[in-house]
Specification:
With 137 residues, the protein is an all-beta fold. The chain contains no helices and 12 strands. The strands form 2 sheets. The chain has a 6-stranded mixed sheet, with no helix packed on it.
Amino acid sequence: KPAFNAVVDGHAFRLEAGKSVDIKVKVSRLHGFGANLLVIADGLPEGVTSTTGPVSGKGEVSLKLSAADEAKPANQPFRVLAIAPDLDPPTVRAAVANLKGQNTAADDLLINQTDKIWLTVMPAKPKAEEKAEPAKK
């Protein structure tokens, strides 16, 4: 049966208020799946937005998460969803992130993948105060 799945390039991301971060997602089409696919971020904290990306022919998409200048600090999971909107009913698959390190000799972990991607939103760094001119003698 035709199907698809998606994998996120990391399981945890850090974002500073007023900045953005790109999240790469690889979508695999299985058994001849040919419908259009979109990738979205779901469950983002208040003050954080995301682009919605159509999946390219190579199966790659990059989502840009952006935190508003006034975004409050947050530390929470969110999900990346791959959606086939043209199907009836639309089909949705949660993207997974691999938890097992790529450069380790460890066997399988108790949990090797998760669909709960972690996002930490940090407050904006204070701007450096302008240097005061030295006092004239």
